[in-house]
């Protein structure tokens, strides 16, 4: 593991490769947004084999790109209270002549850089899904590239070791970045019990739980759902790319609208996303084997109750366990034999 971490740290400081096509790729601060636009990197790499990437991302999203092929540098972009973060970034990249600048933040920085081409985000007049929105930056919205995260052989090997064992895996991510988007943990437990129980579609399967270090205490109750030998605890124990690689081994993922939900969908695992105070038409998990569930209230109804989404209350209480279990059963049945 130490060797992998050294390789990843080294990716933050790369050198120019002769004969390369340098691309400055400025992506999002949030994990979910960064994942949803990640397919653009794969698209560019497939069409420009000589591409060499310098990727600018926020601190939490930056690790998602550590295994990107032809990566020269990752610049961790942190906002400053005085607004000088763009000037600091300009100073870091101004000496390079860029073949292409892709700016998903819609800033003016590309106008002050030496570059042959630029592709800059412009807010669409009508909101569209974030995958389509990102594709519009490269004018490929008619065939938007699906989210895709690169993982190294070392990362895949680590994930294989962490998920080794008998039987399929039900993956749960019960956390979110705000209490309003967080389905109660006891309902996750009830869902897992129904799916993994003797009469469930995943009877005898293993349970894998993911989240950050801050989620460790909240997820303790899920330990009692299955015997210790069938419980895979990854909460606060793996980085984002390793979590992504581990999710490739899962049979089904269930989680709140969060970065981990988008990482799961990008991994190709059948994904059930739980929604309340967020708009699934913009942020729903991407892919044919994904589903969105919510309670009887749509996004507009919840937004009317909490217009600024500042209230410290859960907007997910009206989503019943039966709805989630029914959707999970249906998705499992429709993806039988595909994984």
- Show unreliable segments: 1-16
State the share of residues found in helices, binned by percent.
Answer: 25-40%
Instruction: Specify Rg, calculated over alpha carbons.
Output: 21 Å
Order of helices and strands: HEHHEEHEEHHEHEEHEHEHEHH
Pfam families: Glyco_transf_9
Protein name: Glycosyltransferase family 9 protein
Keywords: Glycosyltransferase, Transferase
InterPro entries: Glyco_trans_9 (IPR002201), LPS_LOS_Heptosyltrfase (IPR051199)
Task: Describe the fold and architecture.
This protein starts with a helix and ends in a 5-residue tail after the last helix. Helix 7 links the parallel strand 6 and strand 7 (206-209). Helix content is 31%, strand content 17%. The chain is of the alpha/beta class and 339 residues long. The radius of gyration is 21 Å and the shape is globular. It has twelve helices and eleven strands.
Keywords:
six-stranded parallel beta sheet, five-stranded parallel beta sheet, 11 strands, 17% strand, globular, glycosyltransferase, LPS_LOS_Heptosyltrfase, Glycosyltransferase family 9 protein, Glyco_trans_9, transferase
């Amino acid at each position: 593991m130490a060797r992998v971490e050294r390789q990843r740290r080294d990716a933050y400081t790369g050198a120019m490769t002769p004969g390369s096509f340098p691309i400055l790729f400025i992506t999002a601060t949030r994990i979910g947004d960064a994942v949803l636009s990640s397919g653009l990197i794969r698209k560019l790499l497939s069409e420009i084999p000589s591409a060499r990437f310098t990727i600018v991302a926020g601190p939490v999203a930056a690790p998602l790109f550590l295994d990107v092929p032809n990566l020269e540098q990752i610049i961790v972009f942190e906002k400053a209270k005085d607004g000088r973060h763009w000037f600091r970034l300009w100073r870091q990249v101004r000496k390079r002549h860029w073949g292409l600048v892709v700016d998903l933040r819609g800033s003016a920085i590309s106008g002050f850089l030496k570059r042959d081409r630029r592709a800059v985000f412009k807010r669409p007049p009508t909101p569209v899904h974030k995958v389509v929105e990102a594709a519009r930056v490269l004018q490929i919205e008619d065939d938007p590239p699906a989210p895709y995260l690169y993982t190294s052989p070392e990362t895949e090997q680590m994930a294989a070791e962490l998920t080794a064992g008998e039987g399929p895996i039900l993956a749960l991510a019960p956390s979110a970045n705000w209490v309003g988007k967080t389905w109660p943990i006891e309902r996750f437990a009830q869902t897992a019990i129904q799916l993994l129980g003797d009469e469930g579609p995943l009877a005898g399967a293993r349970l894998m739980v993911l989240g950050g270090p801050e989620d460790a205490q909240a997820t303790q109750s899920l330990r009692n759902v299955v015997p210790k030998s069938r419980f895979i605890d990854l909460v606060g124990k793996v980085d984002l790319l390793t979590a992504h690689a581990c999710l490739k081994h899962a049979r089904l993922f269930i989680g709140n609208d969060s970065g981990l939900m988008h990482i799961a969908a990008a991994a190709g695992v059948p994904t059930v996303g739980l929604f309340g105070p967020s708009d699934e038409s913009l942020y729903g998990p991407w892919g044919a084997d994904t589903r969105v569930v919510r309670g009887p209230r749509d996004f507009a109804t919840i937004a009317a109750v909490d217009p600024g989404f500042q209230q410290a209350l859960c907007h997910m209480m009206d989503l019943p366990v039966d709805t989630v279990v029914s959707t999970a059963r249906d998705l499992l049945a429709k993806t039988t034999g595909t994984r």
